[in-house]
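Write out a record, fold above all:
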Amino acid sequence: MSTSDYLAANEANWDDRAPLHAARDGSGYGVDRYIDDPAALSEVVKFDRPLLGDIAGLTAVHLQCHIGTDTISLARLGATVTGLDFSAESVAEARKLAADTGDAVEFVRSDVHRALDVLPAAAFDLVYTGVGALCWLPRITDWAAVVAGLLAPGGTLHLREAHPILWAMDESVTTDLALRYPYFEQVDPLEWDDAETYVESSTPLTATKTYEWNHSLGEIVTALIESGLRIEALVEHQSVPWEALPGQMTLGDDGEWRLTERAGVAPLSYTLRAVKTA
């Protein structure tokens, strides 16, 4: 298979997930709360706020935004936000949700690699990327170039992502931490075949095959520096917003999952902030 075949399979999978994640029956992402409460924020954005800082008045783009819950949350913090995603179904659900909540958010369909074909260059004060985005990208250098191209001089990238050491762990081992998969970026992706998504849903997926690539922390940092960004902060966290290692984690009141017996042994996610130099 070619890289385009891998990405097409991933797109079909996310098209399949989107309506399940956007269900109005309390399953999926529980999107009703954003409609019922105009001040509601996603747990991800709540976690990000201390390092995200005051974004009121900023022009922001949320890359790989999926159904827009984090995008809408950023808008509720005062930013003018555009969400971008390659999945047509995700963008459709995001637009529907924003219409139902009344939040003024624009959503654009595009592969993140072609973001500069549909969005203005050097026009954004903030590029935001959330957890579970980078693993779908074959080459981290290509992504870093897009981020640099979108940011205005002095603009900031805010990235929170699952730690590459977590992506290298075998989640099927439920009794201890076990490294199994590549930590460093590989040409060929890992192939998965799974009819379930990562949140409660009522229907199994039909487009079950996905392809993922890991990227080491060093590869990510170096790619951003080489694209003209200056790293301002790199904070590793002992939590992640889903049960990444079933049977070995405890859910906290903040919606974050942490290791139960092996707390502190490994980082599970990280936040990176970088600024585009003039």
The chain has a mean pLDDT of 95. The radius of gyration is 18 Å. Residues 3-21 form the longest helix (19 residues).
